[in-house]
Design goal:
9-stranded mixed β-sheet; 8-stranded mixed β-sheet; 2 domains; Rossmann fold; elongated; VC0802-like; alpha/beta; about 30% helix
Length: about 400
C-alpha cells in the first residue's frame, strides 16, 4: 500500500491517481491511499510526494505517532552501516516544526548509542517542501529517507517516501522551451501530465502498424501536451489552425528530443479542429481547447455572453467533428474555459451538460464528480475545466 500527498487541487490529483492506478481512496483531505506495487511520481503531475506505508497507528495525536516512530526506527536502524539522512513531514497535525524536529532528535540520540549515524534535515515548517525533499534526494536510496506522517479520519499513517515531484525538471521543461507564446496560453507541463493520465492506461490499436499508443492534440499550440506525452513514450499527433504554432511545436519537440536523447514518433500538420480530417490511428485525444480571450478582471455580462457563446460554438463543432472520426471507447480529455466572477462563482460552457448530444459521455470516477475538475490559481479569472470523456 502506498500513500500520495496530493497537490494544490486535491480533487484533480486523486482523479489522476484513480485513472492510472484504479484502486485509490481518500485518506485525508490532502492524501490518498493507492493499492499498487509502486507509484511513479515522475509520471504524475498532481501528486507532490509518494511513499510506501510502513505503519498504521490508531489515534490522531502527534505524541502517539512520535513515540511509534522512535520505537520502530531505533530498532530497525540500529547498527546500520553508512550515515542516514532523515527528513520528517507531518500532515494534518497542529504541532509546529519544533515538535516534529524533536522527534528526529530523540531518534538520532537513540541511534547514536547503537553506532548508527543520522543527519537530520531541519524543519522550517511541519512539512518539508517538495524542493527540499527533491534537493536532498529523499526516498531515492535506502539511506536517504523522508518519513511522511499523515493524520486521517481513521488514524495515522507513517510512510517512507519513494520520491517527490521533480519541480526542477518541470520548470526546465516549461521555461527552457525555445518557443513560447503567452497569447495562446501557457499550459503547465504538470497539468499536461495530469490530462494525459486522466485518459487512463492506453493501448495501441491492434489493427494499426504503430506499436505504441498515439495521442492526438487538435489544438497543439506550442506543443506542451505533445512534449509530455512523448516523454511518456506515446506517439504524438498535433494539429493547429495556425501554421506558426505547428512550427513552434516542431521546434520544441526537436529540442526535447535532443535534450533527453529521445526518438519520438511525431506527426504535425496545420488544421482547423472544427473541420479537419485526422489520420488514424488515434488512441486518445488530449487537448487544451480554445479558452477565449484572457481577462485580468471579471468581464461585463455582455462581454461574457459574447465570449462564452463563441467559445462554446468552436468547441462544440470540434467535438462533433471528432466524434465522427474516432472509435467508440476512445478517451477524450479536454480543458475548456470557465469564468470566475467577483464572488468566486463560475460560469460554465453550455456544452458541458450536453456532451451526450455531441457523441460522448463522462467517465465516472469513485472519488470525484466531473464538476470538481476545475484547475485555476486564486488570481485567475479564466479557469480550465477538465472534461474526462469517452466516445460513445
Amino acid at each position: 500500500m502506498h500513500i500520495a500527498i496530493l497537490g494544490r487541487q486535491p480533487a484533480i490529483s486523486i482523479a489522476e491517481l484513480e485513472r492510472v492506478y484504479g484502486d485509490v481512496s481518500w485518506f485525508s483531505e490532502i492524501s490518498a491511499l493507492v493499492n499498487a506495487d509502486y507509484i511513479d511520481i515522475t509520471r504524475l503531475g498532481g501528486s507532490q510526494k509518494a511513499g510506501t506505508v510502513v505503519l498504521q497507528v490508531p489515534g490522531r495525536d502527534w505524541r502517539t505517532a512520535s513515540m511509534k516512530i522512535v520505537q520502530h526506527y531505533s530498532g530497525a536502524w540500529a547498527h546500520k552501516e553508512g550515515k542516514i539522512t532523515l527528513g520528517i513531514s507531518a500532515y494534518g497535525f497542529n504541532e509546529g516544526p519544533r515538535d516534529i524536529q524533536k522527534t528526529g532528535l530523540v531518534l538520532k540520540s537513540k541511534l547514536k548509542s547503537t553506532g548508527t549515524s543520522l543527519r537530520l534535515i531541519p524543519n522550517q515548517e511541519s512539512v518539508l517542501s517538495t524542493a527540499t525533499s527533491h534537493h536532498n534526494k529523499l526516498g531515492l536510496s535506502d539511506n536517504k529517507v523522508e518519513l511522511i506522517v499523515v493524520k486521517g479520519q481513521s488514524g495515522i499513517i507513517i510512510a517512507e517516501s519513494t520520491g517527490a515531484q521533480n519541480i526542477t525538471a518541470l520548470a526546465a521543461r516549461d521555461q527552457g522551451r525555445p518557443k513560447r507564446d503567452a497569447f495562446v496560453g501557457m499550459l503547465p507541463p504538470k497539468l499536461a501530465q495530469i490530462m494525459i493520465n486522466l485518459a487512463g492506461p492506453l493501448t495501441a490499436d491492434p489493427d494499426a502498424e504503430l506499436k505504441q499508443p498515439r495521442i492526438l492534440d487538435p489544438f497543439c499550440g506550442t506543443g506542451v501536451i505533445l512534449q509530455e506525452a512523448g516523454l511518456m513514450r506515446y506517439a504524438v499527433y498535433g494539429t493547429d489552425l495556425v501554421e506558426k504554432m505547428i512550427d513552434f511545436s516542431r521546434t520544441n519537440l526537436k529540442w526535447i528530443q535532443e535534450k533527453d536523447n529521445l526518438d519520438l514518433n511525431v506527426t504535425l500538420q496545420v488544421g482547423d479542429a472544427m473541420t479537419t480530417t485526422w489520420d488514424m490511428p488515434i488512441d486518445a485525444v488530449i487537448a487544451e481547447g480554445y479558452l477565449g480571450q484572457p481577462f485580468s478582471a471579471p468581464p461585463s455580462n455582455s462581454k461574457l455572453v459574447e465570449v462564452r457563446g463563441n467559445t462554446n460554438h468552436i468547441l462544440s463543432e470540434f467535438l462533433k467533428n471528432l466524434a465522427n472520426q474516432i472509435k467508440p471507447g476512445t478517451p477524450v480529455v479536454l480543458a475548456v474555459p470557465a469564468w470566475k466572477d467577483i464572488d468566486g462563482r463560475f460560469t460554465h460552457l453550455p456544452l458541458i451538460t450536453k456532451v451526450d448530444e455531441l457523441g460522448y459521455e463522462y467517465i465516472q470516477m469513485r472519488n470525484v464528480r466531473p464538476d470538481q475538475l476545475l484547475y485555476f490559481r486564486p488570481d485567475q479569472i479564466v479557469a480550465r475545466e477538465i472534461l474526462v470523456l469517452v466516445k460513445k
